[in-house]
Amino acid sequence: MAVAGSAAVLAAPRARAQTLLDEKDPQAAALGYVADAKRVDTKKYPKFAAGQHCGNCALFQGKATDKAGGCPLFGAKQVAGAGWCSAWAKKAG
Ligand code: SF4
Fold first, then answer.
1. Within 10 Å of residue 91's Cβ, how many Cβ atoms?
2. From CA 62, how far away is CA 44, in angstroms rounded?
3. Which residue's CA is minimally distant from atom 4 of ligand 1?
4. What is the rounded radius of gyration, in angstroms, for the C-alpha atoms of the chain?
5. Which one-letter DSSP state was computed for residue 89?
6. What's the topology of domain 18-93?
């Protein structure tokens, strides 16, 4: 059971369509997600600091250098490594 379970988990990223999150997606818009952190609306999100992006967010599921990766806030959709949203959290360590 446990073995079959982990195989399914490993196979999931391939089987799943690697859809990139659209900035116009209601959930994305609600969190102020942009695919390029250079376009963050700093008036609306004054807590944004230069250097923050999905690739160095604690919630990002890919490697820091990945162009895109999963984010638990957006389900099966991938976020851009260079993106940002208002839920950005500093990676521990
Ligand atoms: S929570 Fe982090 S990884 Fe997810 S979209 Fe926001 S900044 Fe990117």
1. 12
2. 27
3. 71
4. 14
5. -
6. High-Potential Iron-Sulfur Protein; Chain A (4.10.490)
- CA–CA dist 75, 1 (Å, integer): 25
Query: Which distant-in-sequence residues (6+ apart) come within 8 Å of 87 by Cβ?
Result: 31, 59, 73
pLDDT of amino acid 1: 47
Domain ranges, ordered by start, for the chain: 18-93
* pLDDT, tens only, 14-29: 445 579 999 999 999 9
Pocket of ligand 1 (CB under 6 A): 33, 54, 57, 59-60, 71, 73, 79, 83-85, 87-88
Distance CA 15, CA 8 (A): 10
Could you list the beta-strand ranges (E) of the chain. 68-70, 78-80
CA torsion through residues 61, 63, 65, 67, sign:
negative
